[in-house]
Structures are given as C-alpha cells and as structure tokens.
TrEMBL record:
<feature type="binding site">
    <location>
        <position position="53"/>
    </location>
    <ligand>
        <name>pyruvate</name>
    </ligand>
</feature>
<dbReference type="InterPro" id="IPR002220">
    <property type="entry name" value="DapA-like"/>
</dbReference>
<dbReference type="GO" id="GO:0008840">
    <property type="term" value="F:4-hydroxy-tetrahydrodipicolinate synthase activity"/>
</dbReference>
<comment type="similarity">
    <text>Belongs to the DapA family.</text>
</comment>
<dbReference type="GO" id="GO:0047448">
    <property type="term" value="F:5-dehydro-4-deoxyglucarate dehydratase activity"/>
</dbReference>
<keyword id="KW-0456">Lyase</keyword>
<dbReference type="InterPro" id="IPR013785">
    <property type="entry name" value="Aldolase_TIM"/>
</dbReference>
<feature type="active site" description="Schiff-base intermediate with substrate">
    <location>
        <position position="164"/>
    </location>
</feature>
<feature type="active site" description="Proton donor/acceptor">
    <location>
        <position position="140"/>
    </location>
</feature>
<dbReference type="Pfam" id="PF00701">
    <property type="entry name" value="DHDPS"/>
</dbReference>
<protein>
    <submittedName>
        <fullName>Putative 5-dehydro-4-deoxyglucarate dehydratase</fullName>
        <ecNumber>4.2.1.41</ecNumber>
    </submittedName>
</protein>
Length: 310
C-alpha cells in the first residue's frame, strides 16, 4: 500500500483540472503540463485529474493514465493525486493499477453509472477494486448509493481516507460526519457554491473547477474559512460565485463548457469539450467574457500580492 496520508493533507482545495485537447482531439501534453504547473505554483496540492470537470465520462482509460502521469511529472513529491475510477469492475481494477504505476497517490471512486444499484453491490465493487489497487481511496457520493451507512462502514478500512460528498443536505452531512469514529476526511464535493456550509458542518476542504481560472481566489477562500474568518471567506466567495452560478445553469450542463471557454480568456486554448457536452452560442460566450472580467482582475491582483518580492 502507498504511504499513509495525514488527514490535514486533504483539508485543502481539491482541484479538478480541465483537460486540454489539441486540434486532433488528443491530449495536448504541452498545454496540460503548463496548466498543471501554473496550478501547482499557485499552491494547489491535491489533484483529481480526469475526474468530472476533466471530462471523465468522455475519456479513454489510457487518457486518464496519461493525465495522471502529466500531473505527477510537473508537481512536487508532496502532491496528492487521486485517479478517478468507474465503469466495469475489471476495467476499473486495471485502470487503478495503471494509474498508480503512472504516479497516482490513490484512487477516487466516481459516482456509479450502473442501473439497479444497491449498497451490497456497491460495497462488493469497491472492495474488489481496493483489493487490486491497495492504496489510499476516496469515495464520491452524489446519490443515494453509496448510503451514509455504507460509507461509515467502509471508514474502518485503513485504505479509506475520505469522501467527496456532493448531496448538499447539510443536516444529513453533519449527522454523518459526527457518526464517523474512524477519522475519514469528509470533503465538500460541490465546490465554492456550497463550501462555506460544508466547512461549517465539518468539512476541511472542497473540490474546485473554478480554480482552473482563479486558483489564488479559491485557495484564499479556503484559507479564510479554515481559519474561521467567515466574513473574508464569504467576500471571496462572492467574487467566484458568477462562475459557479453560470456553470449551474440548466441542470449543471454548463459545468465544463463554461470553464473551457473561460480559460481561453487567460490565453490558454484547451479545445472544445467532447460531446455530449454542450457547445456555447456567441451570446453565451459574450456573457462569460463579461462576468469573467472582474474575476480575472481579482485573481491577478491576488496573484501579484502572493508573488515573491524580487
């Protein structure tokens, strides 16, 4: 098994990097490397390459392995990299092993795409993959399965280090966190929009897609909440919310498309998202350009403040 992870290492922003594609619809290695380096230099230390905002459902297994490899190559040894795992169980086992060989710290089980789910089936799936990989493991909860009861049962496994919780029922979340006697880390899986409420209820960190275009703001927001300065955290959240509110339109269907266009405003061309992600109209692009102006200005100002004095 990989070296153990200290709980505080997970109490930060978990960035889900956008995936850069070239004109041939292949991973743009140069662009991906440069972007990940930029995120690392901003202070990101936990990565979920190939996960939801990275277009997990449109990536080949070998592309996920490639993204893990790129992330490991351009970040420091202290960086935690969790590879997204899902779909058919034997393919999931192989992907987990391949990603660990490519430099992943551990794995993260993505929400099930299978029909007819049960806790019993989910547990058997989890344990089969965990036995094959034998590494630090995160679980992503976005539906009734896995249940909170199953997650609490899995917490006794030394490989289970945390849960990416994205159901957004705060009392349910708080009750579950309070019932955990094993010390897993319960991470807000719903990004900056819900992070303040999750952190008040017991989360030490949150996932982020917006951090692709404003990493300093996301990290500063987390630092404020972690220190208990909720007024400052909410002030920074207000700067990021235009991104999150736009991504949430029409059942979250702008989640990836919005960011893929927004990152072009920083000078990076990541190519369009793969189908079936929605394409943007010229009017929508104009809206995004307008809402991103103050966000990018605030990000640039904060980045300047954080840069070392020459």
């Amino acid at each position: 098994m990989s070296p153990s992870i200290e709980r505080q290492q997970l109490q930060t922003v978990h960035i889900v990097p956008l995936t850069a594609f070239d004109q041939q619809d292949r991973i743009n290695v140069e662009m991906q490397s440069a972007h990940t380096t930029k995120l690392y230099e901003a202070g990101m230390r936990v990565y979920l390459p190939g996960a939801g905002t990275s277009e997990f459902h449109s990536l080949l297994p070998e592309e996920i392995v490639q993204l893990v490899k790129i992330t490991r190559e351009v970040t420091g040894p202290e960086t935690l990299i969790f590879a997204p795992i899902g779909y058919q169980v034997n393919a999931a086992k192989q992907l987990a092993v391949d990603c660990l060989e490519a430099g992943a710290t551990g794995i993260m089980f993505m929400p099930f795409a299978h029909p007819y789910m049960s806790d019993r089936g989910a547990e058997e799936y989890y344990r089969a993959v965990m036995d094959a990989a034998d590494c630090p493991t995160l679980f992503y909860k976005k539906a009734a399965i896995p249940s909170d009861e199953l997650l609490l049962e899995l917490a006794s496994d030394e490989r289970a280090v945390g849960v990416k919780y994205s159901v957004n029922q705060m009392h349910q979340f708080r009750t579950t966190v309070s019932a955990d006697t094993e010390g897993m880390e319960w991470v807000c899986g719903s990004a900056e929009r819900f992070a303040p409420y999750y952190m008040l209820a017991g989360s030490g960190g949150f996932t982020s897609g917006a951090g692709n275009v404003c990493p300093h703001l996301s990290l500063a927001m987390h630092a404020a909440f972690l220190s208990g300065d909720y007024a400052e955290g909410m002030r920074i959240q207000q700067q990021i919310l235009p991104i999150e509110d736009y991504r949430a339109r029409c059942g979250d269907s702008f989640n990836i498309s919005m960011l893929k266009y927004a990152i072009t405003l920083t000078g990076a061309d990541f190519g369009p998202p793969r189908p079936p992600q929605r394409t943007l109209t010229s009017e929508q692009e104009a809206e995004i350009r307008q809402l991103m102006e103050p966000v990018l200005a605030a990000e640039a100002e904060l980045a300047q403040q954080k840069s070392p004095v020459s």
